Every structure is written in C-alpha cells, then in structure tokens.
Amino acid sequence: MTALKSLLFLIIAPGMVAGYIPLVLLRRGPQIETGFFAYLAFPLWIIGGAILLWSFWNFLIHGRGTPAPIDPPKELVVAGFYRYVRNPMYVGIFLILLGHFLWFKNVWLIVYLVFAFLIVHLFVILYEEPTLKRKFGAAYEDYLRRVPRWIPKSR
C-alpha cells in the first residue's frame, strides 16, 4: 500500500510541477535561443528523472514511507542521492525543468524554474527541516552538518 501511495504522490506532485505546468507554459511566450545547449536537455531529463525515481525508491525501502507530508517516512533516509544532497527529489525536478527550458526555449519555463526553486527553498527551510529536526532529533542534526542542502560537496 505504501508503494501505491508513493506512486500516486509521484504522479500528482512531481508530475504536476515537472510535467503539466511546463506544458501549460509552452502555449505562449517569447523564446530564447539556446543553440547547441538545447541538446543538454536529454541528459538533464534522464539524470533528473533517475534521481527523482531513485529517491522515491529510497523513501519506500529505507524510509518505509512516502515523500508525501501526509505519509512521511518512519526512518531518516540517508541512502542513495541523500548521501550527497538533502533534497535530491527537488534537485531532480529542477534538472528536468532546466532541460525543458533548454529544449523548448520558452522564457516562461526559466521564470517558472526560478519561481519553483524559491518556493521550494522556503518550504524546505520553514517547514521541512524544522519538522525533520523534531522527528529525528540528533540524527537529523548530524545529517544537516554532513550533507549540503542543494549542491553536492566536491570530495
């Protein structure tokens, strides 16, 4: 049942943010020529999608829950991409959105990406991190010290 709930959340939340809304934005708007960089869309889509799906899998297997706030994981997830950044699902979505912009060249897609990042960043610092601190205590505090929020550390 947890897998089904996780799949449903994957379709609804990231599907809406990285799929439906960008499609709506494509209907109109000025374009920016991205030239050769347009071809970077393919690896960004593949990498972003892989990060997103693997992270959902880690929530299911290691966290024994879903990414949805209404059915959160029972264990702190620090496996997979969570070893490198604290928010790999969001990073995966942002990579997909950047790929959309590069391929479709629509100005509104880059504006949307920036707006989405700002909203998610505020959600993470104002709700998600304080909630996880209360739930997982010292283990999460240690995780915060070791793992960056958005950009992996070079080793």
Please count the beta strands (DSSP E, at least 2 residues each). Answer: 0
- What would you call the shape? globular
β-sheet strand percentage: under 5%
Radius of gyration: 16 Å
The low-confidence runs, each spanning 5 or more residues with pLDDT under 50, are none
* N- to C-terminal distance: 39 Å
What does this protein look like?
- With 155 residues, the protein is an all-alpha fold.
- It has 5 helices and no strands.
- The chain has helices at 2-25, 41-61, 88-104, 107-136, 138-146.
- Helix 2 packs antiparallel against helix 3, helix 3 packs antiparallel against helix 4 and helix 4 (107-136) crosses helix 5.
- The longest helix has 30 residues, at 107-136.
- The N and C termini lie far apart (39 Å).
Short description:
It is built from 5 helices and no strands. With 155 residues, it is mainly alpha-helical.
Element layout with pairings:
Elements (H helix, E strand, L loop, with lengths): L1 H24 L15 H21 L26 H17 L2 H30 L1 H9 L9
Keywords:
mainly alpha
